Amino acid sequence: MSRKFAVALAATLGAVALMSQAAEARPEIVGIHADNYEPGTIVVKTNERRLYLILDSGHAMRYPVGVGKSGKQWAGTTKIDGKYRNPAWSPPAEVKRDKPSIPNVIAGGSPHNPMGVAAMTLAGGEYAIHGTNVPGSVGGFVSYGCIRMLNTDITDLYSRVEIGTTVVVTR
Q1: Which of 33, 27, 159, 25 is CA-nearest to residue 85?
Q2: How far apart are CA 110 and CA 87, in angstroms?
Q3: Can you give the pTM of this predicted structure?
Q4: Which of 28, 101, 149, 167 is deepest in the core (most CB within 10 A)?
Q5: What's the CA gap between 39 and 141, in Å, rounded?
Q6: In angstroms, rounded to a whole number, what is the distance separating the alpha carbons of residues 73 and 65?
Q7: In angstroms, rounded to a whole number, what is the distance separating the alpha carbons of residues 50 and 148?
Q8: What is the pLDDT of residues 66-111, one digit of tens each?
Q9: CB-side exposure of 150: number of CA atoms within 13 Å?
Q10: What HEC string does the chain produce?
């Protein structure tokens, strides 16, 4: 286990021990068979509606996520190409077509902004891993392909990964 991930693991275990409320809004350290992933890789298992940050070949941090609804899911390997705090949001053409009353831009920090407190865009810019203004949607098949996290969880993950981090989405 690399020193960076060992420190992250220790810090997380300490924080979890001190905070007993809202466990659903905190990542869990779990055992995982991840020999084929490098430490630091993000793996999204769509059918589980879980995101894993690989710590080493046997451990990962697990977060609940909302994923693409039927017909909007995708799978593949990409990289984080941008990180943004309180991002403004412009609905993609498909969302605008389905919901024409949505404004062309929703300011960052607005309670109506579906990106929540942070977003990490994925290569190509079509999708992102982001927070949400609808926490009850996390855990469901709810998005147009983005990976939706609780704001506390995206804040945690955002601090642990860098631009260039590999993201693997499986079904």
Answers
A1: 159
A2: 10
A3: 0.84
A4: 149
A5: 27
A6: 13
A7: 10
A8: 999 999 999 999 999 999 999 999 999 999 999 999 999 999 999 9
A9: 17
A10: CCHHHHHHHHHHHHHHHHCCCCHHHCCEEEECCCCCCCCCCEEEECCCCEEEEEEECCEEEEEECEEECCCCCCCEEEEEEEEEECCCECCCHHHHHHCCCCCCCECCCCCCCCCCCEEEEECCCCCEEECCCCHHHCCCEEECCCEECCHHHHHHHHHHCCCCCEEEEEC
Tens digit of pLDDT for each residue in 116-157?
999 999 977 889 999 999 999 999 999 999 999 999 999 999
Q: Taking the CB of residue 33, how many other CB atoms lie within 10 A of it?
A: 9
The residue type at 6: A
